[in-house]
Amino acid sequence: MEKNGKNKKKKNNNDYFYFLISRVLIILILFFAIFFRVEIIQMCKNTGDNSLYFSIKTPKTSELKIKPEIKTEEPKIFKSEISGNNLSRGSFTDLFSGTGWKDFEASTVYQDFKTSTISFAPAYQWEEIKNFSLQLKNKKIIIAKSNKKEIILITDQGEIFAFYNEKQLLNYQKNFIFIEKPQEVLLDYDQLTQKWIVIFISNEKVFLYSFQIQGNKIVILDNSLISIKDLATKLKINTFNANPIKLQLSCIQNQCLITDENNLLKFNIKTLKQEIIKTNEQSILSIGKMDNVWLIGGVKKDGEKYKGIIYKLSLNSQQTIVDNNFPFFSSKYSGNIYFGYDSEHREILAVYAAYEGQAMKFPISNSLLAIDFSRFFPIRVMDEGVIPDIFYQDKAWWISSLQKSSTPKFLRILSGIGTDFTPILLKNILSFQLVPGFKEHQIYGISFDETSSRIYRFIDQGFQKKDKVIWQSLKINSGKHKIIKGSLIEKEDGEENGKIQYFLTNDGGKNWTKAEPNKMIIFKTSGSDFRWKVELSQSPNVFYSPWLTRVMVDYYQVRD
């Protein structure tokens, strides 16, 4: 037992000795391997013999460690900036709704704050026709309309005024037409019969007249004085005093449509035959017309949204342009649809008037070709209460406000640009309406207030003549970090036969580099002041102008 114990102890000592020897040998082997590997690598570097190095290296690990040092001699910081390893990205978007980032000293472009657009400045003449204004002193005009040959004005006393030139203002005294002060007046021109139709509403009665301008006189047509009691009853006009109704009138070939926004009634001027028109129970109705066809707008609440639908109604039939499955308008705001007609191109401009407006322009023959015009009717343009009156003249859409509007409006849509003249020309004016003029590029403006009315002439001259206008920004980036690259990311613009060029700088504008969408610019200059600018070059036609409503740029600066 004792002998076996000694043998066992001896064996354990031997095993321990061999264990130590083996570990020492392993350490020595590893040491020499590392030592000679470093020496070989250093030797390869010194001699430039990469073949030996690559023959013994571990492919991935060694390549990552050595390859950057032998591939380029560029400074580390510059290489890192290019690769983005120590860069931070900044982006900037300008919607042109303010001037916080505008360099006023360098910028020469026109900025419309209502439509948030930059372009060439509008050119126009604006002048009051003082002899007409003098005759309308103490007269409150409540409705105005033009057939492009004659302009009709009706006062709150039931008087009719008219003019077809600027020399004479015609007048038809109320004593010969209507003895009571009307509470509501509706006016329209029937192109096919070439006569004016006017409806006076007072004390639960409806009086209808038709008249023409013959020579220098307003002539009331025979059998024109009519009391239509049934019409008043059907439209519930007996509630007019307690709850004013938004009435609309549109007439074609002795047939008229009238709506109180809830009902739609068609009647014959001569026979007084009446017919209720049904439109799928839309809650809010409006009417317009083109040639010999009516347009009916219907708005109905569907869940949390209001949906706008448009119908065509001929003298004999009704057709849905767009049904509930594909509405023209969808909005979270309650509103109504108003129409303008371009007879030259047979196109309709339909405006959904709400807190935030929408609009679609479409050929009457194919509504699927509709173009979205909503960008011209943002919240700032709608001003929380505009009831638009719309017409087309001389390649421009003109939008003003009916007398019932809580705020005046004067908007021109020309060459893809919405120019809101309201803050420029309508200061201190409570109510305002535009009507087509008699000459090319000429329209008239009528202002209404509680004591008098004024007539203005507006001559549209397109845009001011300049070779080039510029918008230039202030410094966009913060701090003093080096800006090494940048790009033009997005833009919403239109050249309109002119030219638009974008530029970026990293040195505060000392040097500019032309920018193209989604093409990265690596600045050759050193700087920490990033800015952008756009140059608009004018079209040969003064009624066209390049424009811009949105731009987005980005830049890359060196991080700390």
- Mean pLDDT, all residues: 81
Number of strands: 40
And the CATH topology of the domain at 82-118 and 466-558?
Jelly Rolls
CATH architectural label of the domain at 82-118 and 466-558: Sandwich
**What's the CATH C level of the domain at 82-118 and 466-558?**
Mainly Beta
Beta content? 35-45%
Shape: elongated
Largest sheet: 6 strands, antiparallel
Structural class determined from secondary elements: alpha+beta
Radius of gyration: 39 Å
Helix count from the secondary structure assignment:
8
Uncertain stretches: 1-12, 32-83, 240-244
How much helicity do the residues have? 10-25%
Beginning-to-end CA distance, first to last residue: 77 Å
In short:
This protein has 560 residues and is α+β, with helices and mostly antiparallel strands. It contains 8 helices and 40 strands.
What is the topology?
Elements: H1 2-47, H2 50-56, H3 59-71, H4 76-83, E1 87-94, E2 110-112, E3 117-119, E4 122-128, H5 130-135, E5 141-146, E6 151-155, E7 160-163, E8 170-172, E9 184-190, E10 195-202, E11 205-214, E12 217-220, E13 226-227, H6 229-234, E14 248-252, E15 255-259, E16 264-268, E17 274-276, E18 284-290, E19 293-302, E20 305-313, E21 318-320, E22 329-331, E23 336-342, E24 347-353, E25 358-363, E26 371-372, H7 379-382, E27 388-393, E28 396-401, E29 410-414, E30 417-420, H8 422-425, E31 431-436, E32 442-448, E33 453-463, E34 468-472, E35 483-494, E36 499-505, E37 513-515, E38 521-522, E39 531-537, E40 547-558
Antiparallel strand pairs: 1-40, 2-3, 3-40, 4-33, 5-6, 6-7, 7-8, 9-10, 10-11, 11-12, 11-13, 14-15, 15-16, 16-17, 18-19, 19-20, 20-21, 20-22, 23-24, 24-25, 25-26, 27-28, 28-29, 29-30, 31-32, 32-33, 34-39, 35-38, 35-40, 36-37, 36-39
Helix pairs in contact: 1-2
